[in-house]
Amino acid sequence: MQSFTDLTGLDDSTEPGGARSGPGRCRRMPAADSLPVTAGAAAVVAAVGGALALADIASPLRAPFTLFYLIVAPACAVAALLDGLDPLSRAVVATGGALAADLLVAQVMLALHAWSVRGGVAAVAGMSLLLFLLAQARRHRGRASRSRAS
After folding, report:
1. Whose CA is closest to 122, among 64, 67, 51?
2. How many CA atoms lie within 13 A of 24 on its CB side?
3. What is the pLDDT of residue 103?
4. Which residues of the chain have pLDDT under 50?
5. How far is CA 12 from CA 5, 27, 101, in A?
6. Could you write out the three-class secondary structure of 84-149?
7. Is-contact 61 52, C-beta < 8 A?
8. Cα(131)–Cα(82) distance, integer angstroms
């Protein structure tokens, strides 16, 4: 039978400063390692939100996940276009750009009397995809011109 120390990884031995010592000490995961996990979880939540809205599935998670999708999808596409900014500035500008893109889609669809939730989500997805592809094409073109210059 295993002891409590073996199951939890904690033991009662401490160093003079109060830090744990030995093989049973708690190891914390660095903050940098949690960033990809958080980004992956955000991508999954956004994808589920888009899928719930497009499939018209009734769920209590549909509204918050779809709202998250409507902010994250264009924000990621705008952030891909912003190469020269530091990370905090890029996040702020991308979020503002995402809100502006969502408002532009809603205004155009309302002006054309073509508003629907599914259509709005599809339009935001299409616009985000085009912005992301534009960023990738610009990045590819920059690499090609640098390789020719070398």
Report:
1. 51
2. 13
3. 96
4. 7
5. 8, 15, 56
6. CCCHHHHHHHHHHHHHHHHHHHHHHHHHCCCCCHHHHHHHHHHHHHHHHHHHHHHHHHHHHHHHHH
7. yes
8. 11
How far apart are alpha carbons 47 and 35 in whole angstroms? 18
Give domain status of residue 4, yes or no.
Answer: no
Q: How many domains does the chain have?
A: 1
| pTM across the whole model | 0.71
In a domain, 11, yes or no: no
* pLDDT, position 38: 86
75 lies in some domain: yes
In a domain, 126, yes or no: yes
C-alpha distances (whole Å) from 2 to each of 8, 9, 20, 51 are 10, 11, 20, 46
Q: How many residues does the chain have?
A: 150
Contact 50, 125 (CB under 8 A): yes
State the residue range of the domain holding 109.
Answer: 30-149
- What is the Cα 24 distance to its own chain's centre? 35
